[in-house]
Amino acid sequence: MWSSRKKTPPIRNLVGEGAVLHGDLRFVDGVRIDGEVHGDVVAAQGRGLVVISEKARVHGEVKASHVIINGEVKGPVHASELLELQPKARVVGGLRYELLEMHPGAIVDGELRPLKTGDKPALVLAASNDA
Asked: Is position 128 within any domain?
């Protein structure tokens, strides 16, 4: 779905495994987090890609156009285009999204709210053949 709309921005930033960042992380294009961030992770102008890997932890708000989570987030998540919750995702906080893809095994403790309501479905099941 994402590829049919827009080109995925390149990942130009990395918080490596074992790294712990205390403070907000603001970035352009894409960021991959393999370590820990204690602060907000926010894309410039709300546009960009955030990848939170299986071993990563974020304690703060995550805001970008495309967010992929397979680790732990404690805080609100805002994806203006696509939010992907992969099998090992653990989120404690509210989710706002245009489109949501949630794989079996992902855990959310918070409110799920689409940004808009319309004719297209805001939720896509990962196991669905319709996507």
From this structure: no
